[in-house]
Amino acid sequence: MKPIIFNNTVLRDGHQSLAATRMTTAQMLPAAPLLDGLGFGALETWGGATIDSCLRFLNENPFDRLDKLKDAAPRTPHMMLLRGQNIVQYTSFPDDVVEAFIASSAKHGMDVFRVFDALNDARNLRTAIRAVKAAGKHAQGAICYTTSPVHTPEKLAAFADELAALECDSICIKDMAGLLSPRIAHDLVKAIKARHSLPVIVHSHETAGLALASYLAAIDAGADSVDTSIAPFANGTGQPDTVRMLAAMAGDARAPRHDIHVLADLRKYFEGIAGELAKFMSPANDRVDSDALCYQVPGGMLSNFRTQLVEMKMAERFNDVMAEVPVVRAALGWIPLVTPTSQIVGTQAMLNVKFGRWKNLAQATMDIALGKYGRPPGPINGELLALARKQSGQEPMTGRPADALEPRMAKLREELTAKGLAPTDENAVLFAMFPRETDAFYHPKPAAPSAPAVAVVATASKPAPAVVQPSAPAGRKASYVLTVEGHRYETTVEDIG
Q1: Which of 278, 274, 255 minimizes the C-alpha distance to 266?
Q2: Per-residue pLDDT tens for 337-349?
Q3: Could you tell me which residues come within 8 angstroms of residue 240 by beta carbon, excluding any fewer than 6 positions away?
Q4: Which residue, 48, 340, 364, 394, has fewest beta-carbon neighbours within 10 Å?
Q5: Which of 112, 185, 174, 184 is nearest to 298 (CA)?
Q6: pTM to 2 decimals?
Q7: E-state strands within 355-430
């Protein structure tokens, strides 16, 4: 059999999983030529949370990052993670926005689009995969791996039939939470290979300590490629380290060849970067955590969520929130936990711990219950569905969510022009997903004079409410109705001093 192909994730999932997606382009560029010369099957350089992070935290244009990385590493195909109809955001977008985003990404040098849907609803993959094919690029359809009473390896293997019917060029088993055990990895790869001749890629995380062993089992079953990273942005909640993976395959006829001296230089370089990003890295993300097999939270979300709980003065409630995650997940039809569903479930778990179960529903929680993200794999909890219907005044939808959305590209160009911004497709798709962040990037405000800090716990998933109407007198706690981009949120704001 052919040697296994290693893809490398250090420039995307590696630091997303272990450093809250805070690695800058300037920190990546010195390493890019070395990575380019190692002969990886692909370098994952974009997508996932990196586009949000560029705009929100790093003051970078995401397309500029892609241009620079493509110039610095031109020989190896570049790969990105795309959330189907959600693109790289948390909600569905009209088909024309999805198509424009993919065409723009391809124009800037993206080669491989790993496309997934959080619910494994093929209807939410159709437009993205067609757009990738139309751009002449590689469309890799992903199966979000999870375990639950309504998920079985047989059903997951059968989903490969739907991906093949969409004319994907390859199939990825995406094990975002590190749940895939060696025996199931072997059998799942075998089952897909028996059904289709498409290349099969396995992506996992070492969160529960299973990934390396599962990779070896998948390779024995005929997998074509696996994802690795480079320490210290590897192992733990990230992918297995490349050198570690090479050592585990020593003597295997399918072992690939990568220069371990260059890999050692890269490790040394990234150790320096990890020092610069230390405040975003937690020792808890480096250790094996078998509890992950219970709450099934992906590595990238664990890294970001720990940071968010610290910021919200709830760090000591981490275990309570994680224990609530399976409760929320079951109530929402046993949805797989991957962006955006992992963040939605995590946020609702936090709200349940903070205010009491179902006392404060996030808008996105209601949207999942009402079918706005697609078809859940299992039934929605009756109590939760009734609350979502009552609070929203809406009935569950049964069709493809994007079919209910009007085209937006023409309007987005008008909005950009009105703001004095170039109405390019790149600006339009960024503005569609991250309007405030994109506007702030192009129109930075002068630094405000320092003022006494006021800490508030905000339960809305999006910052800067457009309308705030107090419904209770001021005091230690107050209830508010917030309208953000047309979505209504009911929340309690607590003064925590």
Answers
A1: 274
A2: 887 888 899 899 9
A3: 204, 206, 211, 212, 215, 228, 229, 234
A4: 394
A5: 174
A6: 0.84
A7: none
